Every structure is written in structure tokens, then in C-alpha cells.
């Protein structure tokens, strides 16, 4: 489902990703951990084409993008659009449209981008709001919701585009513990349904519970990877052990 080869990204003279390789099968949940600034979020943003890699190859759901420069031709731009459609993304900040109701936040993308009828887009939006436990908030505006509720709307909005892969960039980092659990519960449900996911998080217990594989990023590289039990209970690299000593893992 996901294949990344030799992904390189720099900002000016600072190299952020150093030739990252990653392969992930359909239905697999992968969690990325590591210190702040190690390249985890940049990796996700390159997958979703919010950032253009300097080199390398990204394939998601059979659509391939090469790094090196932004798409220029009509065909290249269509490839980028298709890849973005396959990879839904949820951010730290909720990025909801404040002037639209919750229902319209979820329904607008399918209607405009995918050409759904207003009736079908609304029906799908209501279905997804029920899925994230917010069917009674359809007519509310984002400013009337808690942070946890807004993030669940953001998840519903991403799912409305029917992606093959979901990318989560620290989706609970701005929330207090009680609200974090609301969002993590929805994400656990997606894992149980077999959604292919990559999650950047500092929620180590979540990683232990739901990840098929944990990748430890350090200085723009995947320094170690394995099952949660392997990485958390028996890390092989001293840098991984050092990081885990500094963060609560239970």
C-alpha cells in the first residue's frame, strides 16, 4: 500500500530526511516515535505532498510521485492529486472552516473534489459524524465544540474523502488527557476496521496497544523498527534506549 524509497528533504542547508525507506502493507498500523525535530512530521507531509521531497520515490495505492521538483505538467499534477486523494491527513491543529457547520465541514470536500451530489455528501457526512460520536453536533460550528470534538470532526472530514491511507500528525498533542482519550478511541476503532495508518505520536501507550510496527526516528533516519514489544521492551539501539528512558511508555 505504501512504498517510500530513498526519501530526502532539506530546508535550505539543513537536511531533515536522509534517504528514508519504508514499506507498509494494506491494513497495517505503523506508529512513528522519536524526539521533536527528528523528521517525523516532515516525512508525513512529504507523503501527502504538502512538502516536495528533494529526491526519492513515494507510492501510495499504486500512485507514484518522484521527488526533485514540484509537479509541472498536467499529468504530473494529476498524479499528485490522485496521491493526495489516497492519503487523508489529520494535523495537530484542527484546521476546520470556522464559518461552516460541522456537517458542511465534512460534506464540502466530497461534493467539490469528488463530485458527489449534495444529498449523497450530506448522507455520508452524517454517517461519519455518527462514527466519531458527533451525530448530534451536525449543525454546530467549530467554535462551539471542545478541542477533542473538533479533532474528531477533522478525522471525519478526512475519512469523507474515502482515503486508502490515513496519516495522523500528533493529533492529540494540543488536547488535555480527557479529550485525548476521545480522539484515541476513534483511532483505535479505525485500526480495528483495518485502516492503513501512519501515526506520529508521543502517546506511547497507544503505540503499544494498536501498532503493528513502531518506527523510531532519529536525526532524519529510521534508527530502529519492530513490533511494539520489540521496540519498547528490548530496543537494540542505544539511541532508542536513551529516548525511551526519557518518556513514559505506560
Task: Walk me through what this model shows.
This protein is an alpha/beta fold and 250 residues long. 39% of the residues lie in helices and 25% in strands. The strands form two sheets. The chain has a six-stranded mixed beta sheet, sandwiched between helices. A four-stranded antiparallel beta sheet has the order 2-1-4-5, with helices on one face. The two termini are 30 Å apart. 42% of the residues are buried.
Q: What distinguishing features does this structure have?
A:
globular; 4-stranded antiparallel β-sheet; 10 strands; 6-stranded mixed β-sheet; 250 residues; alpha/beta; 25% strand
Low-confidence stretches: none
Number of strands: 10
* CA-based shape: globular
- Structural category is alpha/beta
List the total number of helices. 9
What proportion of the residues is helical, as a percent range?
25-40%
- Give the neighbour order of strands across the main sheet: 6-7-8-3-9-10
Task: Average the pLDDT over all residues and give the rounded result.
Answer: 94
Report the span from N to C terminus: 30 Å
Q: How large, in whole angstroms, is the Cα Rg?
A: 18 Å
Measured by DSSP, the beta-strand proportion falls in: 15-25%
N-to-C SSE series?
EEEHEEHEHHHEHEHEEHH
The largest sheet, given as strand count, sense and whether it forms a barrel, is:
6 strands, mixed
Amino acid at each position: 500500500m505504501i512504498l517510500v524509497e530513498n526519501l530526502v528533504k532539506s530546508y535550505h542547508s539543513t537536511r531533515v530526511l536522509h534517504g528514508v525507506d519504508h514499506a507498509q502493507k494494506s491494513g497495517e498500523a505503523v506508529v512513528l516515535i522519536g524526539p521533536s525535530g527528528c523528521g517525523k512530521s516532515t516525512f508525513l507531509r512529504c507523503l501527502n505532498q504538502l512538502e516536495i521531497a528533494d529526491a526519492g520515490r513515494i507510492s501510495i495505492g499504486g500512485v507514484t510521485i518522484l521527488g526533485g521538483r514540484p509537479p509541472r505538467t498536467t499529468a504530473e499534477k494529476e498524479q499528485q492529486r490522485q496521491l493526495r486523494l489516497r492519503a487523508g491527513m489529520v494535523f495537530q491543529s484542527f484546521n476546520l472552516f470556522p464559518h461552516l457547520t460541522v456537517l458542511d465541514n465534512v460534506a464540502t470536500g466530497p461534493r467539490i473534489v469528488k463530485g458527489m451530489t449534495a444529498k449523497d455528501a450530506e448522507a455520508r457526512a452524517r454517517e461519519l459524524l455518527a462514527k466519531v460520536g458527533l451525530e448530534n453536533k451536525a449543525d454546530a460550528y467549530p467554535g462551539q465544540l471542545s478541542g477533542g470534538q473538533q479533532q474528531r470532526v477533522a478525522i471525519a472530514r478526512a475519512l469523507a474523502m474515502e482515503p486508502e491511507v490515513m496519516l495522523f500528525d500528533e493529533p492529540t498533542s494540543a488536547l488535555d488527557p480527557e479529550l485525548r482519550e476521545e480522539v484515541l478511541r476513534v483511532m483505535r476503532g479505525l485500526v480495528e476496521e483495518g485502516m492503513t495508518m501512519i501515526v506520529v505520536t508521543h502517546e506511547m501507550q497507544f503505540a503499544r496497544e494498536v501498532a503493528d510496527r513502531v518506527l523510531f526516528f532519529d536525526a532524519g533516519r529510521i534508527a530502529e523498527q519492530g513490533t511494539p514489544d520489540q521496540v519498547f521492551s528490548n530496543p537494540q539501539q542505544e539511541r532508542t534506549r536513551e529516548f525511551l528512558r526519557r518518556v513514559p511508555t505506560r
